[in-house]
Amino acid sequence: MTHSIRYGVNVPTSGGDSEHTSLPFCDHIDWQDQRAFGRAAEALGYDSLGVPDHIMTGSGPTTECLTTVTGLAGATDDVTLYPKTINNHLRHGPLLAKTVATLDVVSGGRVKLGMGAGWKADEATAYGYEWPSAPARLREMRETIEVMKRLWTEDEVTHDGEFYDLEAAICKPHPVQDPHPPIMIGGGGEQITLRMAAEYADTWNYYGSLGKMERKLGVLREHCETADRPFDAIEKSWFARCIVRETEAEVQALLEEAPRFSGDHAGSGGAALVGTPAEVCEQLRSYRELGFEEVIVEFVDFPETTGLELFADEVMPQV
Asked: Where are the domains of the chain?
């Protein structure tokens, strides 16, 4: 299937009593549901499967990101696999490079690696991690990306840095993708994160209303000019949660179960896709016109596939 926007689907890793769950019909996360949903998305023509990176989002089950992605690699054939977005501070950067290189080999070159500095302090401290300041976590992420790229492309790496010291480190087999898996940087921090995206990212991903995203794109463009990197070299990617049904009455019935997606403050910053297929198409066209080339969608009715199927049949061919 071809479309002017590339479409990915989030495969949730937590549900039920997660303190920030957006999945009112998923009371318990289950690998069988994740696998079936990923397979259905691939069969329907979606381009990628995104998997969030959390280790504890409540008292219920939360599946680990890279393990879940590896399971999906074995359950699918062609779809891009999208760890989205790795909480860098929870991973030792050089070992993350090794893990992702192996995953790229196992999947036949289908990995697209999302990177972020993390935001959820309570899960980190619950697992015994210290939680540095945001600037420190961002410096750590910058060094991780630099080290990963070297490990993926060089035969042997020695590195003396602020966070990592490597001595003749070998990361083979190298990734299948040449020169390495694409790197997505997620986040909207205008002073540091967007500057890092301008310098390192193949893709930049964030969420928000049309006005918010227009402003972020302007800042990203300025950082690209400073970094002497073409703005168009970075794929622009938008994340949104979605409620889609054939009729207005069906949409309203679903909103009664998920009231946070109603009104002007629906979703995160007014950025949810809510409505009939025609209404969702209209919303998406505004983001496409703004310059977004990829949309990652999380369907609120997971693990049902009603929204997943309707979106593929009636939205993707139109936008």
From this structure: 6-314
pLDDT tens for the 319 residues of the chain, in order = 445 899 999 999 998 665 555 788 888 899 999 999 999 999 999 999 999 999 998 778 999 999 999 999 999 999 999 999 999 999 999 999 999 999 999 999 999 999 999 999 999 999 999 999 999 999 999 999 999 999 999 999 999 999 999 999 999 999 999 999 999 999 999 999 999 999 999 999 999 999 999 999 999 999 999 999 999 999 999 999 999 999 999 999 999 988 888 765 454 455 799 999 999 999 999 999 999 999 999 999 999 999 999 999 999 999 9
Architecture of domain 6-314: Alpha-Beta Barrel (3.20)
Q: Which SS3 state, helix, strand or coil, does residue 22 take?
A: coil
- Find residue 114's DSSP bridge partners: 184
d(CA 91, CA 283): 36
pTM above 0.90?
Answer: yes
Nearest CA to 297 out of 237, 213, 241, 235 is that of 241
